[in-house]
């Protein structure tokens, strides 16, 4: 196998049947940092402004404002200076457009990439193993809807950023947007839980990793730095796999998602043996067990209701959403066990609605039912499980059950110490929360 490029413990290689990939050059134990990589560029989403520094993404109180636009916030003068080459793309334009300044986040990120390409035409420190020009665009697989979205983003880019940027021709722009959309989706899928409000583009080595449903690493971010830690023992020569998708669901659902979004199906051990599917699709133990057709129909119903709910979230009021969850749980509960992943999916949605409505007791009830089966269905170190323990812990503490709260938060920390590293600021924040209560 031909090796291209190398970094400390990792190198780029040709993964049989998968194209390019990343492999280990040495041994890593669970919790070891396999590699870290700075973001090529990054942008804080508009609704997070004021909570985080625009430059280093530190979350703190008392950030100071950009004196010109009064919209961007920084730790200090150094961070403001560091961000200026990027912020200047928006600072005066925000003042000019005022309330009407509303480019999409993808447009904002693209403007930064174009600016960066101009100021750093050479390969940057975040492109050691893979240049941005090598990123996959999957241009040929874009449907009309996505093509239209891209054209409207290109229009937005010209509208809001024309002053400071030089634009490539339309074909090159479409390709760049396709790359960004593809990479952002991949990041959004994997990082949704950790970082809902920030965008990165993108860590080459992160983009090089292939998918497995039994991943041996997890990607987290410390500020704008991507950190990749082992969640299984890794030997020299092993391929490094991350997961692109939510691993809760059974094999068929996972591969549908992979095919839809990433244009391949997975052949990992989990997908071949379908080991976890029986538990994920657990049926109720009834004296008169449901017939296979009934089970099949219920799975079909479950998939439909998940899709229907996903759409309903955009327009239905919370009370109706909660009703949708409860009705579907009632119906599925006649066939499915409470630990069945379709039940868990709807309970998770119901918990989200309760949190939104500040119904803490309701949220806690759902969370208590979810967390144990979650721990069985997900891999040993999972951000989804950590995030559930974190939510539960905070709910317990908010509801004055301090000892249960601490226990749950400690479970979250145990996972995060492996995934995020022991010295991650998130962990000190959680420890502080425990001390304060
Ligand atoms: Zn800062
Ligand atoms: Zn400004
Ligand atoms: Zn798989």
From TrEMBL:
It comes from the Eukaryota. It is an enzyme of class 2 (transferase). One of its GO terms (molecular function) is histone H3K4 trimethyltransferase activity. GO terms for cellular component: cytosol; nucleus. GO terms for biological process: methylation. It catalyses: L-lysyl(4)-[histone H3] + 3 S-adenosyl-L-methionine = N(6),N(6),N(6)-trimethyl-L-lysyl(4)-[histone H3] + 3 S-adenosyl-L-homocysteine + 3 H(+); L-lysyl-[protein] + S-adenosyl-L-methionine = N(6)-methyl-L-lysyl-[protein] + S-adenosyl-L-homocysteine + H(+). It is found in: Cytoplasm, Cytosol; Nucleus. Pfam families: SET (PF00856), zf-MYND (PF01753). Residues 8-245 form the SET domain. InterPro entries: H3K4_H4K5_MeTrfase (IPR050869), SET_dom (IPR001214), SET_dom_sf (IPR046341), TPR-like_helical_dom_sf (IPR011990), Znf_MYND (IPR002893). Keywords: Chromatin regulator, Cytoplasm, Metal-binding, Methyltransferase, Nucleus, S-adenosyl-L-methionine, Transcription, Transcription regulation, Transferase, Zinc, Zinc-finger. Its EC number is 2.1.1.354. Protein-lysine N-methyltransferase that methylates both histones and non-histone proteins, including p53/TP53 and RB1. Specifically trimethylates histone H3 'Lys-4' (H3K4me3) in vivo. The activity requires interaction with HSP90alpha. Shows even higher methyltransferase activity on p53/TP53. Monomethylates 'Lys-370' of p53/TP53, leading to decreased DNA-binding activity and subsequent transcriptional regulation activity of p53/TP53. Monomethylates RB1 at 'Lys-860'. This is N-lysine methyltransferase SMYD2. It comes from Latimeria chalumnae (Coelacanth). The gene is SMYD2.
């Amino acid at each position: 196998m031909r090796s291209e490029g190398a970094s400390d413990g990792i190198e780029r290689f040709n993964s049989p049947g998968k194209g390019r990939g990343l492999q280990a050059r040495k041994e890593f134990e669970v919790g070891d940092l396999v590699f870290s990589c700075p973001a090529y560029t990054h942008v804080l989403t508009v609704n997070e402004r004021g909570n985080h520094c625009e430059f280093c993404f530190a979350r703190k109180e008392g950030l100071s404002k950009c004196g010109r636009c009064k919209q961007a916030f920084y730790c200090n003068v150094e961070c403001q200076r560091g961000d200026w080459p990027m912020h200047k793309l928006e600072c005066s334009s925000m003042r000019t457009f005022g309330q009407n300044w509303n480019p999409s986040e993808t447009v904002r990120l693209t403007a930064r990439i174009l600016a960066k390409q101009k100021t750093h035409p050479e390969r940057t420190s975040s492109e050691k193993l893979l240049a941005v020009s090598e990123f996959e665009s999957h241009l040929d697989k874009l449907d009309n809807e996505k093509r239209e979205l891209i054209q409207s983003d290109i229009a937005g880019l010209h509208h809001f950023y024309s002053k400071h940027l030089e634009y490539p021709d339309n074909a090159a722009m479409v390709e760049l947007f396709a790359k960004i959309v593809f990479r952002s989706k991949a990041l959004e899928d994997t990082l949704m839980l950790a970082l809902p409000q920030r965008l990165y583009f993108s860590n080459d080595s992160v983009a090089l990793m292939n998918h497995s449903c039994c991943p041996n690493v997890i990607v987290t971010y410390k500020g704008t730095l991507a950190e990749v830690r082992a969640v299984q023992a890794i030997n020299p020569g092993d391929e490094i796999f991350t997961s692109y998708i939510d691993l809760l669901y059974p094999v068929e659902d996972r591969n549908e998602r992979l095919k839809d979004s990433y244009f391949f199906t997975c052949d990992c051990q989990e997908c071949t043996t379908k080991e976890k599917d029986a538990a994920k699709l657990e049926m109720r133990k009834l004296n008169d067990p449901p017939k296979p057709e009934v089970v099949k129909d219920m799975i079909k119903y479950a998939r439909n209701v998940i899709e229907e709910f996903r759409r309903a979230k955009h327009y239905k009021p919370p009370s109706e959403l909660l009703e949708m969850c409860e009705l579907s749980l009632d119906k599925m509960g006649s066939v499915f066990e409470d630990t069945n992943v379709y039940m868990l999916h709807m309970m998770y949605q119901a918990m989200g609605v309760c949190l939104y409505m500040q119904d803490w007791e309701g949220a806690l009830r759902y969370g208590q039912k979810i967390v144990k089966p979650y721990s069985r269905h997900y891999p040993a170190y999972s951000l989804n499980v950590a995030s559930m323990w974190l939510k539960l812990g905070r709910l317990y503490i908010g509801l004055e059950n301090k000892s249960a709260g601490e226990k749950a938060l400690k479970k979250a920390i145990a996972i995060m110490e492996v995934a995020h590293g022991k010295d991650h600021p998130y962990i000190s924040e959680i420890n502080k929360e425990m001390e304060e209560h």
